[in-house]
Design brief:
six-stranded mixed beta sheet, two-stranded antiparallel ribbon, 53% helix, globular, 242 residues, alpha/beta
Length: 242
């Protein structure tokens, strides 16, 4: 892997972590996410529930082939769970590209979906995934209704700005400096910690749990103050306060 491709890959991971934070902070009080579940982010939040996949290619033009594999993976999941007509979870693809977004005409038609996303060639043999899975026309229509593609997602810097704004709005008395220097690094650490868990159940966190995990500024400050002033002086100070 070249240094450039390694940097792009790492930036893509951080873009995904930022998107995970955005999804959590925008969720309702009882919303939750699973990191690296069915997709990069599984959002369980009532009518807004979705399996979300992020693509960040700031140096690459958009082409249908870039997201084809992701769309096929989503259709395979839809098929594996029985193609339910009333499925709540949507399939969301969020991508940022250097250009070429005009190539994707929305809303999708069944023919466009079949031709550009569900057909591929391997070892000189054409494959039509919808036919191989025996997906009916009605099932394909249902899947298309669940498929939400955005190839004009925010840039890396724009999304980071959004994360900081959300932190300030969701955490009481959180200022811009606090969000950037304390709460954002802690939030990233929480998401990274979830991502490396082998057990999928341990990669799930609710919005409330997430906010409690990152809103620890006073705890950290008190630990520093205790060491700086000495335990006895710190204890007297706490007694006076409470």
């Amino acid at each position: 892997m070249t240094d450039r491709s390694a940097t792009a890959t790492i930036k893509g991971y951080f873009y995904q972590f930022d998107q995970t934070i955005v999804e959590l902070l925008q969720a309702t009080k009882h919303g939750s996410i699973t990191v690296e579940g069915v997709e990069d982010i599984d959002l369980d939040d009532g009518d807004d529930s979705a399996f979300v996949q992020c693509k960040y290619y700031e140096g690459t033009e958009y082409n249908h082939s870039v997201i084809k594999e992701a769309v096929i993976h989503m259709l395979r999941h839809f098929h594996a769970v029985g193609c339910p007509a009333g499925q709540l979870f949507k399939y969301r693809l969020r991508g940022h590209y250097k250009g070429g977004q005009h190539k994707l005409v929305l809303p999708l038609t069944d023919e466009f979906l079949k031709e550009h996303f569900l057909t591929y060639t391997k070892d000189k043999q054409a494959h039509k995934v919808h036919e191989e899975l025996a997906i009916t026309d009605v099932q394909l229509v249902n899947f298309r209704g669940l498929l939400d593609i955005d190839v004009n997602a925010l840039s890396y810097d724009e999304q980071q700005d959004k994360v900081l704004q959300l932190l300030m709005s969701e955490i009481p008395e959180c200022k811009a400096g606090d969000a950037l220097s304390f709460f954002y690094p802690v939030a990233i650490n929480v998401i990274q910690g979830l991502a490396i868990e082998a057990d999928e159940a341990k990669r799930k966190i609710t919005k409330d749990q997430f906010l409690r995990a990152i809103n620890r500024k006073e705890v950290v400050f008190n630990a520093w103050l205790r060491e700086h002033l000495g335990r006895e002086y710190f204890a007297r100070m706490i007694r006076r306060k409470y």
